[in-house]
Amino acid sequence: MSCLPFLHRTSAAAALVAGTLVHATDPQALLTRPMPGKPEWTRAHVPIRIYGNTYYVGSYGISAVLVDTGAGLILLDVGLPQSAPQVEANIAKLGFKLADVKYVLNSHAHFDHAGGIAALVRDSGATAIASPSGATALRAGHVVADDPQASDVANAAFPAAARVREIADGEAVRLGDTAITAHFTPGHTPGSTTWTWKSCENGKCLDVVYSDSLSAFASDGFHFLADATHGDLTASFRKSIRTVASLPCDILVSTHPDASGADERLAKLAVRREPNPMIDAQACRRFAAKFEKMLDERIADENKAAQAH
Ligand SMILES: [Zn+2]
Description:
alpha/beta
């Protein structure tokens, strides 16, 4: 029943009568129809100011970050389809208007980060922005064919977003006093994008990094090394990891908070703001090193498997 306040009035009334059947048939509810995931991916987290104009509005396990530009809001990722109402409620709890969200930027087009974008775009009137490959997936509501996890068909499809714009590598989304720059970091997906901006508090401006996933996960049968279907992907993946390592980085939030220790930093932030536990100048380098090791192990396994044949 907790979802009722977020349904349109007519469907809310119908839901009281018809129960969960409404969720399956109401086109409004289709965009937030639950997809399975780990419990913490949808566990509600209170919204919290990270630093300056930057806020955390995601769940315990999946990040969503809000930036108040002074001339509208920019949201980075939403989470699963069913998390959209939670993110919308968090934006409202901070005192902001959903209609002021002008852009929703995406890290990568997998259901656990992009599944809720369609509902957010519908409810706010915002435009989604992603890399060309990411935009293709958001428009289709389906991972791209060359995604390392494309053959995990159970999770391949998610709600398609209505308004999607492409951005180029190094280009910035500008709104109000803020410029959020796209850094293409392909590897986890072909369209993976890391976003950076400056956030200021009491006259002190810091570099904030919203890093995309750098994990070398893939479906069975996929290779990051060259195979019959594609060339070697490991060099561009390694370049992405090194891009994140070398970014000016005072504050790191990763798409999965626990992948970079951002979950622990957020927990500390809830109990003290000074000194701000989110500030960690080594966080990007540690995060990159952790996933470079994972890539090395993955390549070693692929080489071993190739030699066994
Ligand atoms: Zn992913």
